[in-house]
Amino acid sequence: MRVDVTVNGERRVADDVWEGESLLFLLRERLGLPGSKNACEQGECGSCTVYLDGVPVCSCLVAAGQAHDREVRTVEGLADGERLDPVQEAFIEAGAVQCGFCTPGLVVAAHDLLARVPHPGDPEIREALAGNLCRCTGYEKILDAVRLAASKR
Ligand code: FES
Ligand code: FES
């Protein structure tokens, strides 16, 4: 099947997409956007989080065909050209990245939180990031990064 989808503001078309193919596979393997990571492929880790019509989803759980005629925004699409999004900058500044596998999903989740709640408290931050697993950082630096990004708003 053909999938015609707007990704990061650009219309993209992929042909011969298999019905069981995930949006994550489409983005990474067909559209050359490897920012979203493939860790569990079961909706458990959040490393594949992208926006679908403005709502964060685990792209490993969304069929590519479901994105047809819709809008996807990936971690690559958060930056404004060469200028990183403040959430991306805060992750760097706070040292919230180790292996980096969880980072794209956490950045999208934090970006969504701050768009909804510009100055969240710690419980709200923890709740918003609860679906994103990190096996490296112990989460403290990640919380610091979200607090930092919020403080700069
Ligand atoms: S790879 Fe999608 S939730 Fe883990
Ligand atoms: S930095 Fe390695 S999984 Fe989070």
Automatic annotation (TrEMBL):
A GO molecular-function annotation: anaerobic carbon-monoxide dehydrogenase activity
Metal-binding recorded as keyword: yes
Group of enzyme by EC: oxidoreductase
Pfam families: Fer2 (PF00111), Fer2_2 (PF01799)
EC number: 1.2.7.4
Keyword Iron: yes
Alphabetical UniProt keywords: 2Fe-2S, Iron, Iron-sulfur, Metal-binding, Oxidoreductase
Xref: PROSITE patterns: 2FE2S_FER_1, 2FE2S_FER_2
Domain of life of the native organism: Bacteria
Sequence ranges assigned to domain 2Fe-2S ferredoxin-type in this UniProt record: 1-78
The protein, known as: Carbon-monoxide dehydrogenase small subunit
